[in-house]
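User: Predict the structure for this protein chain, please.
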Amino acid sequence: MSDEDMNRLVYEAQQLRGQGEQLQAQLDSIADSVNEAASTIDALKEFKKNPEMAMVPVGSGVYVKGGKIKAATVLIGVGANVLVERPLDQAIATLEKRIEASRKLSEQIGKALADINSRLETIDNQAKKMIEEEGA
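Assistant: Here is the predicted structure, written as structure tokens:
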């Protein structure tokens, strides 16, 4: 194989590594979203059990204790910075659906990442073979 073939393999490997890094970043972001949604579900369920005590986040890990508040409904984001009022159970169900959709997306991205890693391994083997043939 020629230098041109080797350069083509190197270029393809660089492109694939870049794609792999992007996919890994997406997986990390999805995992963060799933963890946040799961924590929110836990908090909503706890709040449902004990509506007498509410903790209101004000930032930087600081919370203000709140008194009894209307526990029947919550505001939930539906996209484009739009909030809608929903019953607590419906908000929990919405978050559970989001988690499920995120997990499915994560599986698809994981498969794509595995395909990229497989192709990178193939490229590595081809490059090693080319180097061995030149050395022989």
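The chain has a mean pLDDT of 90.
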